[in-house]
Write a structure and sequence with these properties.
Blueprint: E1 2-3, H1 28-49, H2 58-72, E2 76-77, E3 89-93, E4 96-98, E5 113-122, E6 125-134, H3 140-157, H4 167-179, E7 183-184, E8 188-192, E9 199-203, E10 220-223, E11 226-228, E12 234-236, E13 243-245, E14 251-253, E15 256-260, E16 265-267
Helix pairs in contact: 1-2, 3-4
The structure holds 2-amino-4-trifluoromethylsulfanyl-butyric acid and cobalt (II) ion (2 copies).
C-alpha cells in the first residue's frame, strides 16, 4: 500500500480534481509483460500456502518466498530495498493491518489470521498481490472478516470498466464492509502499477459512486482493501513499518493487480483456486 495523499483528489467530486496527474495507459504488449510478473507473484502465494501452519515463524515463510523468487523464478523481490524495507513479503497477523515485518520471533499459532503480500519484479514490471491465510481453526468472527474482505475485493474489481469512475470501486467496497459492521481503513490505498511499483492513480477503498477520474482501457492498478472489525484508525509501530489497528481488533486484506480492458477488467494476479469472471 501507499500512504494516501489526501490533497491530490477531492474524493467527493468527479470534477473538482485538486491536482492533475498524467497517467500512462499501457499497450496490450505492455500488459502481457505486466501479466507475466503478476503470475509469478500469484505463484509465490500458491507456493507458500502448504508451508503456512501453526509453529512456523514469519521469517521462515519470508525465506522460502525469497528463495522461490530469486532461484526458481529468476526474478526480483520488489519489496527489498523499497524505502529501506529489508524483507521479501509483508506478513500481517491479526491486528496488524499491513506491512508486518517477517521475524524469527513471530510464530504463527492456531486461530491466527494472516495476510501475505508479495511483489515480484520481472523484466522491469511489477506484480503485486496478497491473500489471507487461516492458521488452524480461527474463531467464526475472524473467518467471517476474512471472507467478507475477499468479497469486498471482488465487488471492487467488478466495478472496473471503461467509462465508469474510480470512486465506484471504493463505494462498492465501503458499502459491503459497512453493511457487515466493519470499517474501511482510509490511511492506505491501492495504486497504479507497471514499471513503477507505486504509481498514480491512488485507488481509494471508500468513497462516492461517480466520483474520481474516468476509468480507461490500459489503466493498470491494484485494489487492496484493508477491512477492520472495529474502528478504522491506524497506528504505526516504532519499527517505522508495522501498521496496526488503534483499538487492537483484527484486520484483513486481499489484493489483486488488474488491467482495464475494452469492456471490463482482467485480473492479472488471479490464482488457479479463484473462480473469477
Ligand atoms: N505490497 C504492498 C502494497 O500492496 C507494499 C509493501 S511495501 C513494503 O502496495 F516495503 F512494506 F514491502
Ligand atoms: Co499494492
Ligand atoms: Co501488495
Amino acid at each position: 500500500r501507499i500512504k494516501i495523499i489526501l490533497y491530490i483528489y477531492n474524493v467527493h467530486s468527479s470534477t473538482n480534481i485538486l491536482k492533475k496527474v498524467k497517467i500512462q495507459l499501457k499497450s496490450k504488449d505492455e500488459i502481457e509483460k505486466l501479466r507475466y510478473a503478476c503470475q509469478l507473484a500469484a505463484e509465490v502465494l500458491d507456493m507458500i500456502t502448504e508451508h503456512v501452519e501453526s509453529g512456523v515463524s514469519t521469517k521462515y515463510l519470508d525465506d522460502l518466498c525469497f528463495q522461490h523468487i530469486t532461484e526458481v523464478q529468476k526474478a526480483t523481490p520488489a519489496n527489498i530495498g523499497y524505502r529501506g524495507y529489508e524483507k521479501t513479503i509483508c506478513a500481517s497477523v491479526n491486528q496488524v493491518i499491513c506491512h508486518g515485518i517477517p521475524s524469527d520471533e513471530k510464530m504463527l499459532k492456531d486461530g491466527d489470521i494472516m495476510n501475505i503480500d508479495v511483489t515480484v519484479k520481472k523484466d522491469g514490471w511489477h506484480g503485486d498481490t496478497s491473500k489471507m491465510f487461516l492458521i488452524g481453526k480461527p474463531e467464526p468472527h475472524n473467518q467471517r472478516l476474512v471472507k467478507v474482505t475477499q468479497e469486498c475485493l471482488y465487488l471492487g474489481i467488478n466495478e472496473v470498466r471503461p467509462g465508469a469512475r474510480l470512486g465506484n470501486i471504493g463505494a462498492a467496497i465501503q458499502s459491503h464492509a459497512e453493511n457487515n459492521h466493519y470499517s474501511v481503513v482510509e490511511d492506505y490505498c491501492g495504486h497504479g502499477i507497471g514499471q513503477i511499483y507505486h504509481d498514480e492513480p491512488q485507488i481509494l477503498h471508500f468513497g462516492k459512486r461517480d466520483s474520481g477520474i474516468e476509468i480507461k482501457p490500459g489503466l493498470c492498478f491494484t485494489i487492496e482493501p484493508m477491512i477492520n472489525q472495529g474502528d478504522k484508525q491506524t497506528r504505526v509501530l516504532n519499527d517505522g513499518w508495522t501498521v496496526v489497528t488503534k483499538d487492537g481488533r483484527n484486520s484483513a486484506q486481499w489484493e489483486h493487480t488488474v488491467a482495464v480492458t475494452e469492456n471490463g477488467y482482467d485480473v492479472l494476479t488471479k490464482r488457479s483456486e479463484e473462480a473469477l469472471d
